[in-house]
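Schema walkthrough. Field components (list of strings):
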Amino acid sequence: MEHQTLYFGDCLDWVREWPDECTDLIYLDPPFNSNANYNILYGRGNGTPAQVRAFTDTWRWDTAASARLSPMLNAIGNPAHKAIKGFWELLGESGMLAYLTYMAERLVEMRRLLKPTGSIYLHCDPTASHYLKILLDGIFGAQQFRNEIAWCYSWPRNARRYYARTHDTILFYTRGPDWTFNADAVRQPYSPESEGRDEYAANASAFEAAVVLDPRDKLPQDWIELPPLRPNARERLGYNTQKPRALLERIIKASSNEGDFVLDPFCGCGTTVVAAHNLGRRWAGVDISAFAIDLIQERRFAPLNVTANIRGIPADLESARRLAGAKWADFQAWAVTRVAGLVPSDSMSSDGGIDGRGTMLAQPQGNYSRLALSQVKGGRFVLGQFRDFLHAMERDRAAIGIYITLDSVSSPGARSEIARLGSIRVGANEYPRVQLWSIADYFAGHLPNLPTMADPYTGQAIQSSLT
Ligand SMILES: C[S@@+](CC[C@H](N)C(=O)[O-])C[C@H]1O[C@@H](n2cnc3c(N)ncnc32)[C@H](O)[C@@H]1O
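Field assembly_structure (string):
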């Protein structure tokens, strides 16, 4: 694991390559959508195994979950064995069990990576925190449990049949009986020297008031009252699940020292890694979304004149080809996000063969939606598959389609289909309605010819660039 490095891909694949006891602090905020339908989470055997990608944030029992479960049930020496066996009996083959087996695989590796004095913070919410605590007890040992921290993020909302849900849960465990904990570093009202100062001051007034006004006890508590980022917050990058940097700064200050190594295996838009950087820690982050990695580099570190090492993102056509051969889903997601404004589809199976979608900023002329669709194909070009894509475009009245291949395509059949579909007009400009575009083009410095697209996360205009 290298310092100042962002890794693209499934964190499990990366962490398995790293040595034992190489990090001092792990913070993880894995995908979990508490608003997900409880029938999906707890429902048993829904009968339609969907091919759900890891980051879709919904969990169903499927063949991948089943493949994860079997070894854990059989391997009595696996630290997660007892907890998973118990969950299996309690929950049956459900979305929740799928989620817990996924987490178990990764948490076992996280323990291995921690130094003997290291700590782990698992950010979750009450939907699954009770199960995750048992899982962590099983993997780390119940005696290594330190805190269940409540991050109280909002004032009560309307809830008439139960108490309003206004906090996330952060489970804090240590690897062993001696661990780093700098109570003094987080006991005083907090005033970060980093650029988020104003933001923090605005967000944290309630927390600070509570600390200042209560002279009996200034030591850190197991609750942190800190509002989530407001829509217009300066620090906000438009990444849905972005956490406030002040929250991560507290955790990092408390549980690591300058020069220590901090890892975030689900780093999203980089809150942890930028906080660690500003606090003089060494750091690494992993995310399965190429968009997230680009965002961290461009919006977090470029303004600080910091260049992070990037691993796993293809640097040339040959490495793109290798990624396509080894991890097709990662390749697809990366390829789609080369086109500014497109995001990978959540579920490969339920989106009619569409791998990426985006929205144009302006309405085109004619009877089209503002939708741009894309499909990614490897291997030999097949005209029939291209036509299926054109049908999907017609179905959605998509204004623009980008058919992405690894190598350039020269097919007379495709050319005549493209000519048949003609162009669309947006304002004063015309754009071909369908474009064949390849990763070879990308590395040759050519981008598709698109009207201005809307940033999928902020809705604002986004410019294409070669990154
Ligand atoms: C809840 S978000 C993390 C948000 C982050 N704490 C922040 O402040 O930006 C979860 C992230 O995990 C990523 N992710 C999902 N599955 C992953 C996996 N298997 N390996 C690495 N990253 C993954 C998602 O792309 C998403 O960015």
